[in-house]
Structure formats: C-alpha cells, structure tokens
Specification:
The protein is α/β, with parallel strands linked by helices. 24% of the residues lie in helices and 18% in strands. A hairpin with a 2-residue loop joins strand 2 and strand 3. The chain is globular and about 55 Å long.
Length: 369
C-alpha cells in the first residue's frame, strides 16, 4: 500500500463535508401543507439538447409502485356544490393515467375498453403515462397534498380540488410534436386557471414547444362529461387533460421517457402553483358557465377566428341564420363551437353576436384521447 502524503490526506477530509453539504442542499425540501410556495416549487434539472433519445429496446426508469385509487367508493360532497373547504383541509388532487386499465371501464363506457392509446418506438402510451403519473403523485405527496392515482375509470361524481388526466399524443406524421392542454367544453374559471399554470410550468420544465391544435376528443373527454356519464368528475371539480407530447416524435419521446422526472416536475409544479394562487373561498370560480346560443348580428354573418384577435386566422364563416354555441368567454370574445359539415371551434367578438333562445347542442358521445 502506498503512503498518502499528509497534505493530500488533509484535503480529502475537507472535501467530504463539502460534498455532503452540497448533497443536502440539492435534496428535496420537507413536506408541507398547504403546498409549498412557488419559490419553493420542485426544481427541474437543467435541460440539455444533448440528451439522447431512448432506444426502442430501452425501458423507462421504474417508477414507484402504482396503486390505483378505489373506483367503487366515490369521493363526493353530498350536494356537489362549490362550498369552501375548511382552511385546515389538505388540498386533494386526482391524477388520472390515460388508457391505464381501460379494459375495466364500466358498461356505460364499454365502447372505450379497447382504447389502448398511441404506440411508437417500442413504447405503449399507457406505460409512458403511468411512468410519469406515478412520479407526479410522489412529488405532490412530498408537498403535503392528498393525491389519488386514478385508472381509466373515474369514481362517480369524483370531487377534488383539481384533476389532471395524463396522456401522450400520436400522429401518422413523425414531424408532429409539442404538448397541449385542454379543459372541458364548459370551462370554469378554476379550470382555466389550472390550465394556465400547467401550461407555463410544463413548458419551463420540459422545454417542449406548445401545440395549439386542441382536438374534439380532448374537449369532449369522457372523464369530464358529468352530464352524460356517471363515472365522471363532479360539476365543480377543476379539470385539465394534458397531451405531454407526441409519442410518435423522437424528440418528444426522448423527453417523456428519457427525462420523465422533468416531465413530472412540470406537471406537479403547475398543480402546486394553481393551488397556491387560487382563492379557495371563491366557490363561484368552480361553477362551469352556462351560455345562451348565439347568432350573428350582422346581415352578412360573422367570421370565426383561430384566436381571440381580429388579426387571427379565419377558420369559418357563419351565415346570418347560423348558430354558435359558446363554452368560454374571455376579454370580450366568445370561444364557440360551430356545427356543420366540419366541426369547428374558434373565437368571435361578443359585440358581433346576439343571444337566442335556441337550445344548446346535444353533447357529443364519449370520447377518449
């Protein structure tokens, strides 16, 4: 054995406590309730463009064991009204894993039992969703939040401070990429706030681009359709569905699988930020709006835009005898659904339409994403 010079041995002793101190500084903060303030939100690792995409034979890093929340006993308030919860009640969040155990869906949703989601690069969507979702659950629990890990089947009238359904997208085009989020057709102010915080935090944590092509399947997601289904959220549960990225795109797949921790951190931080910023005494924010059907005010009809701006692309023109069905109001604009040969959603200015007493459209059938 070679002798170690005294100077080198002394420096080694000094290096040990320095390394231990650095490790402690990087450790997660202790759990708290209510959620940690935003400045103590979970930190994402720095993104790196050098992160290689996973190979088709690789497996995601094993997540914590997944134990679904029971689906037989609903967690509901008796009257399903937005009454404020006691101040000392820990926040309660549901994380639904898209397509997980879809074969167990109840009879009312049996046509979705064969829905298995996207498949690409050797990965099944349900497995990718579960891998990220279990990490989100653990992160939220570390902040003192009560969390349910939910399969495809939602408990009847599921009641929580928020629910996020986690999915991955798919496309026949390998060039399609980016994440996107959507609220139900009838969007409460709370659901919109949850969407806004999730969008911002997910983009920051993952560095992925945002895809604004929201689909009817997302807006009409079966788990959010309390008007049609028993196994769906309560009317006052703020809800968002996230497509984390395109499983069929190698770059997106590298993030969802190779950087599953960052992906989960983005979702968890979005939820934590929402819980911190939302006024829990504001019950009205939980109520989805009920709008009257609209018709064009001008004799020439009205243009429907892709965004709430006169400069945004025109996606449809509605004739004077046409009808527009509103599901969101923002900054003097209505987001509308236009029924016709092609189902279109877009935005019209409130001052260009007028109320009618026409009944709202029949809700679309259950859809999965």
């Amino acid at each position: 054995m070679r002798s170690i010079p005294l100077r080198r041995w002394t420096l080694g002793l000094i290096a040990v406590p320095i390394a231990l101190t650095a490790a402690l500084l990087r450790a997660p903060s202790a759990a708290v309730a209510p959620p940690a303030p935003l400045h103590n939100a979970i930190a994402a690792a720095p993104t790196s463009s050098a992160t290689p995409p996973p190979t088709a034979t690789a497996q995601p890093t094993p997540p914590p064991s997944a134990t679904p929340a029971p689906t037989s006993t609903p967690t509901t308030r008796p009257d399903s009204t937005p009454t404020p919860r006691p101040a000392d009640t820990p926040p309660h969040v549901g994380i639904q894993v898209g397509h997980w155990r879809s074969s167990e869906l109840p009879d009312e949703l049996k046509r979705l039992r064969s829905s298995t989601g996207a498949f690409a690069g050797g990965y099944k969507e349900a497995d990718v969703n579960l891998n990220v979702a279990t990490r989100v659950v653990e992160l939220l629990k570390s902040r003192g939040i009560a969390v349910d890990l939910l399969p495809a089947t939602i408990p009847p009238a599921y009641d929580a401070d928020a629910i996020v359904a986690i999915h991955a997208d798919g496309s026949t085009s390998a060039g399609s990429r980016g994440f996107k989020l959507a609220t139900p057709w009838r969007t409460s102010r709370a659901s919109q706030q949850l969407l806004d915080t999730l969008t911002a935090e997910y983009a920051t944590a993952t560095g992925l681009p945002q895809d604004d092509a929201i689909t009817f399947n997302m807006k009409g997601y079966y788990a959010f359709n309390y008007r049609r289904h028993t196994h769906a959220i309560a009317r006052t549960t703020p809800a968002v569905i996230i497509e984390m990225g395109f499983l069929t795109n190698a770059a997106d797949r590298a993030v969802m699988i190779g950087r599953a921790d960052d992906t989960a951190i983005g979702i968890a931080n979005g939820i934590i930020r929402y819980l911190n910023e939302r006024d829990r005494s504001d019950g009205d924010a939980l109520l989805p709006p009920e709008f009257k059907t609209q018709r064009p005010l001008a004799a020439e009809g009205v243009d429907v835009h892709s965004a709430p701006s006169d400069k945004a692309r025109v996606v449809a023109h509605v004739q004077p005898d046409g009808r527009l069905f509103v599901f969101l109001e923002r900054d003097g604009w209505y987001q509308v659904f236009v029924r016709g040969a092609a189902r279109v959603t877009g935005w019209v200015r409130k001052d260009q339409v007028v109320d009618t007493d026409d009944p709202p459209p029949t809700p679309p059938p259950a859809t999965d994403s």
